[in-house]
Design brief:
mainly alpha, globular
Amino acid sequence: MNSSVHRAFSFGRVTAITGNTVTGLVRLKIFYGLLLFALLLIGASAFMARMTFQQEFLILKDVGLGAMSIFTSLLAVLAAAQLLPQEIEERTAYTVLAKPVSRFEYLVGKLFGVFLLLALNIIAMAAMFFVVLFLREQTVLTETTRAMSAEQSAEALGSIQAAAFNPNLVSGIAVIYVKACLLASLTLFVSTFASSTIFTFIVMAFVYFIGHLQAIAREYWLQTNAAGWLTKSFLALVALTFPDLQLFNLTDDIVAGNAIPLPLLLRTIALGSFYCAFYLALAWAAFFRKEL
């Protein structure tokens, strides 16, 4: 194969691979199963026991954002874990790489395909979430208007609207998407050297829990031990290798209605983007040396 063919990075080739990847992923039954289950969970949250409207909206947001986070993360791992092993087993990768397509373009196209699938997934769940929230808000507004006089209901209606919607919901959904993209990038990297898809799932399960627990462990070691340079170096290595997924957990503040500062939002998105690029580079380095 002529190596000069691959010198120029082609967005056209990446777009073609991305489109084929999305087409293949949306045919998977697991995609519709996860999406349907998440939508049912979000929809069912509207029929929970009635409480004060503040408590009810808190639960609706907690369930909705929690379902989006869990199922989008799970879909990211499931989708990315199957890409390389399945295409290598079916020899589809050989056919694509035999054409004027570099391995880097191949990986980028595959990863962007997963990103697009995750975007479609979270848009569908967010739409369901906002519909449920809007319908419940209208019901509470109607009930409040009937139960109070015009003077009394004016302030109450404002409180209800403030409790139902706030701009932080959109920010929270964006962070959930970035977290899922990060997990997809890491899963793709693991799949480049994994011996099987099951092995990739097992590794990612450990990574997921380590990512959520490392902040607690880091705080414990720094507070209860004499943190020398060796300890700090080890903790820095762990933080770089295993992303601190707790940094992407802004759900509690969003549910409580606390404002998320713009610098924090941008810093979180930038961190997620860095990890996506970092794991893509590692995946390319491993895939470049892989014998096909």
